[in-house]
């Protein structure tokens, strides 16, 4: 493979040099694909009237409802969504609520949130926000398997982000999962508005389910306590409201939801909310997982921002405290996959528990390569102690797709952005740990303590 690739690309003299590189190791594999630099930020403007809805996005709320969220500059625009299954014929209308927030001199527009439903599964609904502006359409997810979950982290709003989202939409999917770092506004609040407009064409059509990253924290870096200073996550929580009450979570920073009629349970953890054994998040996670019946829910998927397993120098060790606090809880619940962002590269580990390969541990996947302006992480550490557990790693922009086919099988594929093309660079079939003979009920061959798992 080394030789054929070099023949295509390099003239004779260079080829000779590259043959030496081939003999020397894997260096040439990296010359075959030139990892791209970051691209420019796209600032999406609002050119319509103040009452015209903008930044429209939808998210799941419970089994058969969806939240429609949007912003108007006009403070008097109504928080109403009209919708129906025929374009232009709105047979239902629902009112919701609104919020806004201040960040020093910035005041947000009116942020509307309206929960519509009950909705039929796998159905296209046409809707209009605030009785003004264009019609949008969304499709509800299926109420049974199969379901296709797209995954993209660390998005930002650059030309690479546009490319990633175009690739996500090019093939059909049901829900987009985002393991944190959305706008990269980094306290510049108008960038939350440009981001909302930038993603609207995708986020208004399919539910986006998000958790927070470090770029959502936006704590005011003040040396002393200023009255009225913005609190952390002010923009994120006002704009990207999560359905946390529905899963009994006291905080918008962590929650869970079911997909495909409960065949898939997705847990969104908060890397930037307290997570130790005495935290509310920890207690909630234990409660939430205890309520999952793996007979009816063969798939358990977790998202968080700062990866627990990572062989890059970038952000090395940042997820370690959370791993130490929570890894055992996920392991005992037989979580199938854990997606993280934060590191701007793709990396997939084998099934792991407590830094060792373990057939009953989750597959850990870092997918923080959505396209943001900070660019890619190029610093894989070949000598890292976890390197032998890292099956596939590549510093390229891209997205992933988890197609859960049935109770036992799911297909994972990571697609690299090859400019205009989306190329599958990593794929594998996963077997649900709930139905696996080795790791399912009662069996516990890999536990560190060797004690039987009595609670699944
Ligand atoms: C709109 O939908 C309703 C209910 O399905 C139907 O009775 C009505 O004829 C439709 N109107 C138009 C203009 O299509
Ligand atoms: C958990 O974190 C809190 C502060 O966030 C600290 O006060 C407490 O001692 C920690 N508890 C444990 C068990 O580590
Ligand atoms: C689940 O899907 C996989 C992959 O398509 C297939 O091989 C397997 O037979 C299916 N299992 C069941 C129980 O349908």
Please tell me about this protein's structure.
It is an enzyme of class 3 (hydrolase). Keywords: Glycoprotein, Hydrolase, Signal. Its EC number is 3.1.3.2. With 456 residues, the protein is an alpha+beta fold. Among the domains are: 31 residues, no CATH class; 287 residues, Metallo-dependent phosphatases (Purple Acid Phosphatase, chain A, domain 2, 4-Layer Sandwich), CATH 3.60.21.10. 18% of the residues lie in helices and 28% in strands. The protein contains eight helices and 24 strands. The strands form five sheets. Strands 14, 15, 16, 17, 18, 19, 20 and 21 form an eight-stranded mixed β-sheet that branches. It has a six-stranded mixed β-sheet with strand order 13-12-11-22-23-24. α1 runs antiparallel to α2 and α7 runs parallel beside α8. The longest helix has 14 residues. The chain is globular and about 60 Å long. The N and C termini lie far apart (45 Å). The relative contact order is 0.12. The N terminus and C terminus are likely disordered. The protein binds 2-acetamido-2-deoxy-beta-D-glucopyranose (3 copies). The site of one 2-acetamido-2-deoxy-beta-D-glucopyranose (NAG) has 4 residues, from loops.
